[in-house]
Design brief:
10 helices; mainly alpha; 52% helix; globular
């Protein structure tokens, strides 16, 4: 995979993340490459919270909070920081929002790395929702060895079939990170793919041919046309009505939001069988 392919992948991740997050695209001022905090210690802040010396870069480099909270909900704080900066919001107001989001949602402290992941076992724990910071630490070392392009070329082909993981939030997080060109956040996005991986590569009797679309929009239009011709809407109605696909069978904490699981099931069908 060449640099142009990586750039194209970056753009596609950005478009997909914007569609999934339902967030309008806003031109963004990119930040220079960040310096990695080897110790993985949380960045210090004044007692006044975000009104200290925290800027946008510091928020994106901040690992004080876990990638999820409440059992399965995804942490969107960094996404909001990037979007607000793109809208021209001041750092003080961004800090105020960050604190509001942190308190409102009860963000949980990051789980300290146990140094459990290395090149010999990184696949063993994929999708088990363990060792998030261990994966961050592992991909950090690999980026230093391979470079960012080499890291993406080496690991994304093995993780991309988990693009629906955490209800697409792995893709969303990585899309924001690529947009901001923030090294730490890109590594965090890859770690999220490994941490919450749910494969979509299901057995199929169909033979697939690679599409040669010129843009993501063309691909989406092709999916929509295929869905209409295959009467997907009638099939989805049956899925939504079938208790076999209830949230309880997938994850008990999704009981009150079972629509999410059934939406994932439909997405898998669209991706793999149309």
């Amino acid at each position: 995979m060449t640099s142009s392919h990586v750039n194209q992948l970056s753009r596609r991740f950005l478009v997909i993340s914007r569609v999934l997050a339902n967030t309008p695209y806003t031109p963004h001022t990119f930040h220079p490459k960040s310096e990695w905090k080897k110790s993985f210690r949380f960045l210090s802040r004044s007692k006044s919270g975000s009104k200290g010396k925290f800027g946008v870069k510091e928020y994106l480099d901040d690992y004080r909070y876990h990638i999820e909270y409440g059992g399965y909900l995804s942490n969107h704080a960094k996404h909001a920081v990037i979007a607000l900066e793109g809208l021209g919001v001041s750092e003080e107001r961004i800090g105020n929002y960050f604190d509001f989001y942190r308190k409102k949602h009860g963000l949980e402290p990051a789980i300290e790395s146990k140094n459990a992941i290395d090149k010999t076992n990184w696949k063993k724990y994929i999708g088990e929702k363990k060792y998030f910071m261990d994966y961050v630490e592992f991909f950090d070392k690999e980026e230093k060895r391979l470079g960012m392009e080499g890291l993406i070329n080496t690991y994304m082909p093995q993780l991309i079939d988990g693009c629906v993981s955490a209800l697409h939030h792995c893709t969303i997080h990585l899309g924001w990170a690529l947009h901001a060109k923030n090294r730490l956040m890109i590594i965090e996005g890859l770690a999220y793919f490994a941490f919450a991986h749910v494969p979509t590569h299901l057995p199929s009797s169909k033979e697939f041919k690679a599409r040669q679309d010129s843009s993501v929009l063309d691909t989406l239009k092709a999916i929509a046309a295929a869905a209409e011709s295959s009467q997907l809407s009638k099939w989805t109605d049956k899925v939504f009505a079938d208790p076999k696909y209830s949230a309880e069978r997938f994850h008990p904490e999704l009981k009150d939001t079972g629509l999410q699981w059934r939406t994932i099931y439909i997405y898998i069908y669209v991706c793999m069988y149309i």
